[in-house]
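Notes from hallway chat w/ T.B., transcribed later so I don't forget. T.B. wanted the structure written out for a chain they're using in a teaching module, and asked if we could keep both sequence and structure tokens in one place. Agreed to drop them here.
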Amino acid sequence: MTESARDARDAEAVSRFVESFAAQLVEAGMARMPARVFAALLSSDEGSMTSAELGEQLRISPAAVSGAVRYLAQTHMVSREREPGSRRERYRVHGNQWYEALTNREAVIKRWEGALREGVTSLGADTPAGRRMAETLAFFEFIEAEIVEMMERWRVHREKTFGPE
């Protein structure tokens, strides 16, 4: 986008989008500040901003930005980059952030499966609680297999739609 096109963009409309999308993320379970920071990064043309830029756009403190970015980095939804020749960091959202976030969840599902297997063994597979654990375990095993297949289909679809990375 050219600078003049960017300048012509309605800042109030962008702000409404950021808050609206962030509200949707909050409704889905994300904490409010990380949701706002993620939506702001996603809606920026460069896909990256400094802490100061995020604070100014969202009218939040540096501490709020720091906490939000820490959460987003841990969930692989953003990455930190150093500006060349500077100590300042930029926070970047990538085109494949959803893939990375979902792939990270796959590791959590694996850990849950291990705990559930232990639960089935501890409770006894033939008890009501053991059967509930076994059904929950089967659900997560099913989801895990579906995610693997779905992510492969996504990689093919993404390459056809957007070209190679």
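Follow-up for T.B.: Strands lie at 48-50, 79-82, 89-92. Might be a good example for the class.
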